[in-house]
Amino acid sequence: MDKQTAEKIIINFAKDAVNIYDDLIEMLPEENKENIELEQKELMEAINMVENK
After folding, report:
1. How far is Cα 41 from Cα 36, in angstroms, rounded to an integer?
2. How is the chain split among helix, strand and coil, in percent rounded to 5?
3. Which residues form a coiled coil (predicted)?
């Protein structure tokens, strides 16, 4: 497996994680959402950095 293929696989896993965060945010009480939303934002920023390099 070459580096580009590995990066695409990892990005797809990360995007799946972003979707899981969406589900968690919907289920959590309001006071617990802030940390999850922050983690999700950081993950999305990391995905964008890798995709746009």
Report:
1. 9
2. 90, 0, 10
3. 21-53
Where does the pLDDT of residue 32 fall: very low under 50, low under 70, confident under 90, or very high at 90 and above? confident
Question: Which single residue is written with the structure tokens 């964008």?
Answer: 48
* pLDDT higher than threshold 90 for residue 30: no
Dist. CA 1–CA 37, nearest whole Å = 33
pLDDT at 41: 95
Cβ neighbourhood burial of 11 (10 Å; 0-12, 13-18, 19+): middle
Q: At what angle do helices 3-27 and 33-51 cross, to 10 degrees?
A: 160
pTM for this entry:
0.78
